[in-house]
Amino acid sequence: MKPYACLLAGWLFPGLGHLLQKKFWRGAIFLVAVLAMTGMGLAMGGKIYPLYIEKPQTLLEIVTNLFKKENPLALLAFLADLGNLLIYALSRFLSFGQGALERSTFEFGTAYVAGAGLLNYLIALDAFDIARGKKK
Amino acid sequence: MIFQSHLLSMVIYAFFVSVVLALVRKNELKSQVKYGLSLFLIMVIGGLAFGWFMFLFAR
Q: Is B41:B48 a contact under the CB 8 Å cutoff?
């Protein structure tokens, strides 16, 4: 299995990079852990932060506008949420993960979703390392 | 509404993070258990200790 294909598969769907390399137990545990964290985060009213782009802009304009209009930390939250690529894409199309600010669990829910995204980056990189033969 | 308890939320969060990091960082089962348990205890005890530390400044 090609390393970059494993990296992409793992980024797209938690644990898929490991499952493709026949690391079934590890892949299954990663899948359950990341999906459970994301699911619980969303159930708690957590928010999946989008990247707001109002009109076609250059990359520099997008970054500059982010710091003008949005809380800069929203950019970090967006990058964390992007770690769960499929969940992020689904949230944009199906309009879930809007966040329920009025709930006392909102902050923890958002932390759960962001944490799951960050963990998935590590999981995808782990699959990449295994495919390259740098790790068992 | 689930997880009204922030303590329970923190403990479950620490559990999942510990499991994933232990599997990513270590290869042998014994070292995974040891590393995962250490991480879990550090996060939970550290979170509780920091919570009580912040209580000193509560009004």
A: no
**C-alpha distances out from residue A122 to A31, A80, A99, Å:** 13, 11, 25
Q: B23 exposed, middle or buried (CB, 10 Å; 0-12, 13-18, 19+)?
A: buried
CB pair distance less than 8 Å for A36 and B27: no
Mutation target for B interface from A21, A35, A108: give the one with most B CBs within 10 A.
Answer: A108
User: B2-56 pLDDT, tens per residue?
Assistant: 678 889 999 999 999 999 999 999 999 999 999 999 999 999 999 999 999 999 9
> Which stretches of chain A are DSSP H helices?
3-12, 16-19, 24-43, 59-69, 72-81, 85-94, 106-132
Whole-prediction pTM: 0.87
